[in-house]
Amino acid sequence: MLCALSDNNMSSAVKDLQENNRTFACVTNYHNEMKYLLVSDIHGCLPALEKVLRFYDRSHCDMLCILGDILNYGPRNSIPEGIDAKGIVEALNRRAGDIVAVRGNCDAEVDQMLLEFPMMADYLMLVDEGRRLFLTHGHIYNKVSMPKGSIDAIVYGHTHLWELTRQDNTLVCNLGSITFPKGGNVPTFMTYEHGVFTAYTLDGEPMKQERI
């Protein structure tokens, strides 16, 4: 199935395909200057998401990339403070036209019935200014189990341990979690613009920056 989406702000093509029994999507930005906010492992916590969305608006970001585990907190985690799956659905659906997303290991088909943007793909290839960013949740593809082919960066979450390092010729970007950070870390998310990833605390303080 081939689906192309476009609007007045971005020249892009979105393709939902099936390859090797894994669903993926591709977003290509050909011309415009874009700023992306990348977040993972929300796990149903509305207050944490609201902080990210305020940063998104304040920083004039153009696209919100959500890398899985959106509504459910999962059986291995405690119940997060401020859990509000319905509130998250409402907040994200108001921005559905600005969102691309992939499926996490805690996401289910019933979540897709509520959310008004596709979020069931195993990975998404974002091509921006000729740079190939492989976006996924992290339970299938990660720095240990890399996808085949040439990519400039692999971006994921899942472990709740943020990371921004280089592995051979590929930048490894683990977004961490805005709700359940592990390893003594603070809640984190990242932005990407013109070949540069920047890691932030949930309060919007920059922590580290790396260029592809």
UniProtKB/TrEMBL annotation:
The keyword Glycoprotein does not apply. Residues 34-193 form the Calcineurin-like phosphoesterase domain. Keywords: Hydrolase, Metal-binding. GO terms for cellular component: cytoplasm. The keyword Cytoplasm does not apply. GO terms for molecular function: metal ion binding; phosphatase activity. Its EC number is 3.1.4.-. Its cofactor is a divalent metal cation. InterPro entries: Ap4A_hydrolase, Calcineurin-like_PHP_lpxH, Metallo-depent_PP-like, MPP_YfcE, Phosphodiesterase_MJ0936/Vps29. It comes from the Bacteria. Belongs to the metallophosphoesterase superfamily. YfcE family. This is Phosphoesterase. The gene is yfcE.
